[in-house]
Amino acid sequence: MRSYGQECALAKALDSVGERWTLLIVRELMIRDGCRYTDLRQGLPGIPTNLLADRLEAMEEAGLVLKEAAPPPVATHLFRLTPRGRELEPVIAALGRWGAPLLQANPGKDTFCDHWVALPLRLYVHDRAPQEPAVTLALHAGQEQILLGTVGDGSVRVQSGRTAQPDARIVGNPYQILRLLTGKLKLQDARTQGLRYEGDAKLLRRFGAA
Amino acid sequence: MRSYGQECALAKALDSVGERWTLLIVRELMIRDGCRYTDLRQGLPGIPTNLLADRLEAMEEAGLVLKEAAPPPVATHLFRLTPRGRELEPVIAALGRWGAPLLQANPGKDTFCDHWVALPLRLYVHDRAPQEPAVTLALHAGQEQILLGTVGDGSVRVQSGRTAQPDARIVGNPYQILRLLTGKLKLQDARTQGLRYEGDAKLLRRFGAA
DNA sequence: CGGCATCCTCTTTGATACTG
DNA sequence: CAGTATCAAAGAGGATGCCG
């Protein structure tokens, strides 16, 4: 990106990450660190392949991304965020919070990827009783199953995959689930909107907005 | 801006404010709300005038900016942030924090405007003893004089202008002043770097990082 | 002067095709 | 799979013109 040429921290930040697609690439790597090129393309519907390549190179030069050879079984290399890249989390979190109200006006025209829901869960949901025993929820927001677990420090761990026995299971659309877990939607109301909840409703009290 | 077409809060936010110059325009309006077109141009060195006009129109349509007829004495209209626009403050703050380290590598090639320093002061400095009587510092970071005052709620008020009797006076470059007031630089060290401080050094204890 | 609109050139983007 | 290459269209940047 052309520099703004302004001696201002905001302008410098935008010189670095203000280009089109860059912060969305950071989002992808924040959701699942250690991505192949193809994984990134799938998580970034609409990106032209040449731009993805350009951006990754620029981000590597800027010290945001690391391209490393994958361990033996894999025949390719993986992209990771550097610590400096991970420091963009507050930026992503702030932008996401601000952008959330814009999602309402969406008549399903936009594309959606299941795994995207993991990021707001990680950023905005926390465990309100870290001392109590760990809890695991299985979330079904789309095709993929996402696991949400409590962690000792009050934050939650989010991963996709399957587990034998979650403590509860939630099936619904991403926003319902997110609003339910941040306490903005009551279980009763969510149920009338079609969300399914299996398990002890008290478990929900463990979760709240961060 | 072309939409990313992704059902994701971050992507939606970037659809709205991700275009080149947009967040810098927000910065200007955050520093001094109620700007004329010309004020904006001065605060945004390098912006092509047609782009400024384009962006302002788009931002008005997006509900970020309000263009209002100025009260009688002024023969023009003023641009203001809407409440929704002002909600971008956490975004600007996060980006600014992230970008701050990039300012070091600057050999004075970039342009600088005095009033820019007001924003980090407001965002990152706070009053550590709100109950105590108000205090006013006169800051000279460039040509312009900037006043920094404490406010009852722990935040500080920043304005440019002159006052009869500040409680102390600081002359230095913007980063020195900012680092001094956020407690990252000691007065002693700042002085050896050329900063001038007139007044009671204890006053500095009132200020810290937010 | 303040507040744009126009015109032109150059760069970036997006879509698609192609290659090791 | 992981990119490069190509090319048309959109956007950015700069200069200048216009109008109250």
Explain how this protein is built.
Two copies of one chain form a homodimer. By secondary structure, chain A is an alpha+beta fold. The first copy, chain A, has nine helices and nine strands. In chain A, 36% of the residues lie in helices and 19% in strands. In chain A, the strands form three sheets. Chain A has a five-stranded mixed β-sheet. The mean pLDDT of chain A is 93. At the A-B interface, helix 1, helix 2 and helix 6 of A face helix 1, helix 2 and helix 6 of B. Chain B binds a DNA duplex (20 and 20 nucleotides) through residues 1-2, 19-21, 36-38, 46-53, 75-77.
Span from first to last CA of chain A?
34 Å
So how many helices of chain A? 9
Sum up the overall morphology of chain A in one term: globular
Topology pattern of chain A, helix = H, strand = E? HHHHEEHHHEEEEEHHEE
Which protein chains are joined by the largest interface, and how many residues does each one contribute?
A: A-B, 47 and 46 residues
Determine the strand fraction of chain A and express it as a percent band.
15-25%
Main-sheet strand order of chain A equals 6-5-4-7-8
List the helices and strands and how they pair.
Two copies of one chain form a homodimer.
Chain A: H1 9-17, H2 22-31, H3 37-43, H4 49-61, E1 65-69, E2 77-81, H5 83-86, H6 89-99, H7 118-124, E3 125-127, E4 136-140, E5 145-150, E6 156-160, E7 168-171, H8 174-181, H9 187-192, E8 196-199, E9 207-209
Parallel strand pairs in A: 4-7
Antiparallel strand pairs in A: 1-2, 3-9, 4-5, 5-6, 7-8
The structure holds a DNA duplex (20 and 20 nucleotides).
